[in-house]
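In this section we walk through a basic example: taking a raw amino acid sequence and producing a predicted 3D structure, encoded as discrete structure tokens. The instruction is simple. Fold the sequence below.
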Amino acid sequence: MVTKLQNMLKLKCNLEDENQELKDKVTNVIDELAITREEHKLAMTMSEKKMEDLQASHKQEIDELLETTTAQREKEVGLLQESLQSKMNEIGKLHKQLTELEREKQTEVARVRLEYDAKLLKLQKEITRAQQQSSKTANRGSDIFRQKLSNVKAEADQQISSLKRTISDLQRRLDAQTGGTYGPKRKF
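The resulting token sequence is shown next.
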């Protein structure tokens, strides 16, 4: 029985030792868990700080990129507007030159028409005068006057043809330059 008690006492001591060991291990695990939690908390804080820093850096990069892009776009828009204004001014000048050229050509055509009409009238008067003179002096050298009349008519026809060609040529050039935007052509 003493042995039994000794064994029980020994078992009790062993159990107490084992229990103490387990308590120590639990305390160590709790301490390690607390340390791990602190480390995890510190790591989370550092990660959050890094994330905030990265977000701030990213936002700053985006803002800088946006600012740079906006400045470049505004510069390009300004250049395009200047180019457009320059082209519009150039078109205005060309339009003004075209209008002036049309006016000059119309003036030239009118001048040539007036010359044509004046020469035609002069030739008609000369023909009429020659006819009157030829009828008055029909008995005296009617052949000479007929010849002269024929020469005057031929010269008149030649001048009329020349003037018609000149007018047609000027009209054609005017139509080519203006794109044929005027009314119907006058026929001579």
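Looking at the output, two observations stand out. The chain is about 90% helix and 0% strand. Helices lie at 2-136, 142-178. In the next section we compare this with other chains.
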